[in-house]
Design brief:
Layout lengths: L2 H15 L1 H9 L6 H15 L7 H15 L2 H13 L4 H15 L1 H20 L1
């Protein structure tokens, strides 16, 4: 493991997804899934999210669209919250989901709208 990339990834991951969620994921990891936590933190967040080519807001837009296409509601919840943390508005998220309805299918977009509403409601209660 590259300790420098891991630490960089940990900082970015905490900033986007929230320290409580990220720290919990790492603290709850065991021998079986810790290698995945290390891989995600170092490679996804340190190596790719840490690149200078796109800002975090743009990366969030891309992630929302791809996660909608893949129909991964658990990950979508995390990344809707992350998109808000990265400066997207609810209206911009809505536009991403409308765009995905055309290219990924209406059912996938409807699920993403439903999931995002749950996240927005939870965030309003915080």
């Amino acid at each position: 493991m590259n300790k420098e990339l891991f630490e960089k990834g940990l900082e970015i991951r905490r900033s986007v997804l929230g320290a409580e969620y990220v720290d919990g994921s790492i603290q709850n990891a065991d021998d079986f899934n810790m290698p995945m936590q290390e891989l995600v933190t170092q490679y996804c967040w340190g190596e790719v999210w840490g690149r200078p080519g796109l800002d975090r807001k743009t990366r969030s837009i891309i992630n929302l669209a791809m996660i909608t296409a893949l129909n991964r509601p658990h990950e979508l919840k995390l990344h809707v919250r992350g998109a808000i943390n990265n400066g997207l508005t609810k209206d911009e998220i809505k536009e991403v989901f409308l765009q995905t309805a055309i290219y990924c299918g209406v059912p996938a977009a409807i699920d993403s709208f439903r999931t995002a509403k749950e996240v927005f409601a939870a965030m309003e209660k915080e």
